[in-house]
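sorry for the late reply, my laptop died twice this morning and i had to redo everyting from scratch. anyway the thing you sent over, i finally got around to it. pasting the sequence first so we're on the same page, its 379 residues, then the predicted structure underneath. double check i copied it right bc i was rushing
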Amino acid sequence: MEIYLDNAATTKPCRESLNAVTECMTRNYGNPSSLHSAGLRAQLVIDNVRKIIAKALTADPAGIYFTSGATESNNLAILGAAASYGKRRPKIITTTVEHASVRNSVKYLEEQGYEIVRIAPDSNGVINHEDIINAADDRTCLVSMMLVNNETGYILPVRRAFYGIKKRFPDCITHCDAVQGFMKIPVKASELNADLISLSAHKIYGGKGAGALYIKKNVRLKNLVFGGSQEKGMRPGTENVPMIAGFGEAVRVLSGSIQKRYDAISRLKSMFCERISKNDGIIINSGDECLPYIINISVPGIRSEIMLHFLEEKEIYVSSGSACSKGAKSGVLSEFRLSDELSDSALRISLSHETTVQELRILAEAIENGMQKLQRKSG
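ok and here's the structure:
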């Protein structure tokens, strides 16, 4: 029996999403830029999804722009905002625990001469919103913070940080990579005080190849790609209608059950953590301040990749960290004050609403079995 517990990397598309994708690949396959009825039907699909996502964010549909995924959305948000506002205000604030698409975008800007301030967690592994606010000044054009860390599930103080930033520097642009939080906890643009919000379909049971960027009215971004007038020229190129349709269906299906699923996942996390905490050889890195969908643990003495492949042989799929790092150490766990030993032995277990108690029991037993066998080998 396959047990898939790597949902922070990607999710299995839901039936409704698959049906929408198939419909747009077999029947409603027109180019939305075409002026005939087939093109109009495709455009109507896109317009409807724009409304669905905007409703989930409590935002204006006109502010939803479709991209190929969150990496493109993050690049467009950061590089586009810097190009529009950074000439006179060349300072950008971010954190040290961001996704690679944010981390490497600001690194590129730093190489171009921008001043980058990276706020790290404190000695307790906590990011303080005051540190973000205090780092800003009238030279700051952009603040970029993720909502939920993709490796630990840690929920960052975005709302409080952005509120303080906007109160002191209302012209500063605020960007939130909300990929790991969207449809798991309520994400409202106005409550976050976010001018820009990045989203991804394949993290919420849609397909790979579709994402979105919310852009608040009157916020100007310099586009990175040049072509036609699709997405108002902000993201030219023929829209990926099938995957956008699937994105919309995934959001629609999940919209009415965010709290119900959160409560159910919280119970699963509590059960699993209670079970494994009885073993002195397992350290839980994701505390109560973390989103329950992601559980990061360490098994000191056994490298992540070795335990991962041991579990894989039993058809249990977890992760050793962010999928985008391709197995390389991202350094994020060290930023959260984990020792090298804990970082090198960390596993990320990420749940979905389809995860069962039985699956987590099997996982716990497999990890304990792996500890016995693998430690015996290394000894």
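The CA atoms of residues 271 and 357 lie 8 Å apart.
thats about all i looked at so far, will dig more tmrw
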